């Protein structure tokens, strides 16, 4: 398993993974996902096992000079196999190299597994946003303070 940068021909498989990971109203439309991925301020990592795409993460440098995890998606069969950890390590490292001290994300109020995963990584709950998702579900905003970037210039988990 390794990470690589997004390629335009990945969009369809990433869209299918996102649709499988999240319910309607929480998952992104193909157009929304493409817009997030192609922002000048964003970066997308694609997790692969052999030639199979097994997950991805989209992060952004938010206007408030903080990092924002837009989405992290791991194919169901690959969950609990460190794919999410590898993706989050890469994104947090990238955020720290951008000289940003904080990274935040939103997670559905009822997604307890995701909340536990983020809490283990040092994220704390900042606030609740009612009706955050288009299906009316609320979200928690979670934030993590980051230290200085690692001395090693190689990005974790990415084939250099």
Structural class: alpha+beta
Major sheet summary line: 7 strands, mixed
Oligomer: single chain
Secondary-structure element string: EHHEEEHEHEE
CATH architecture assignment: 3-Layer(aba) Sandwich
Q: How many separate helices?
A: 4
The domain count comes to: 1
Helix content: 25-40%
Question: What is the topology, as strand order, of the major beta sheet?
Answer: 1-2-3-4-5-7-6
Q: Roughly what is the average pLDDT, rounded to an integer? A: 90
Low-confidence spans: none
Tally of extended strands? 7
Give the overall silhouette: globular
The CATH homologous superfamily is termed: Gcn5-related N-acetyltransferase (GNAT)
Q: In the CATH hierarchy, what is the class?
A: Alpha Beta
Q: Into which percentage range does the β-strand content fall?
A: 25-35%
CATH fold-level topology: Aminopeptidase
Rg of Cα set = 15 Å
Q: Calculate the terminal CA-CA distance, rounded to whole Å.
A: 14 Å
Structure description:
This protein has four helices and seven strands; from the N terminus they run βααβββαβαββ. It has a single domain (2-145), classed as Gcn5-related N-acetyltransferase (GNAT) (Aminopeptidase, 3-Layer(aba) Sandwich), CATH 3.40.630. Helix content is 28%, strand content 31%. The protein has 160 residues and is α+β, with helices and mostly antiparallel strands. It has a seven-stranded mixed β-sheet, sandwiched between helices.
């Amino acid at each position: 398993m390794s990470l690589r940068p997004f390629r335009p021909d990945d969009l369809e498989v990433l869209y299918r993974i996102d649709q499988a990971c999240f319910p309607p109203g929480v998952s992104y439309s193909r157009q929304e996902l493409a817009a997030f991925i192609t922002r000048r301020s964003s970066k997308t990592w694609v997790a692969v096992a052999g030639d199979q795409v097994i997950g991805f993460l989209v992060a952004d440098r938010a206007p408030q000079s903080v990092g924002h995890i837009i989405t992290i998606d791991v194919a169901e069969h690959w969950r609990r196999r460190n794919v999410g950890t590898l993706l989050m390590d890469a994104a947090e490292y990238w955020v720290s190299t951008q000289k940003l001290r904080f990274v935040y994300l939103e997670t559905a109020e009822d997604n307890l597994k995701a909340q536990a995963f983020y809490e283990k990584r040092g994220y704390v709950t900042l606030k609740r946003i009612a009706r955050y998702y288009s299906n009316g579900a609320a979200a928690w905003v979670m934030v993590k303070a980051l230290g200085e970037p690692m001395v090693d210039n190689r990005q974790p988990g990415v084939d250099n």
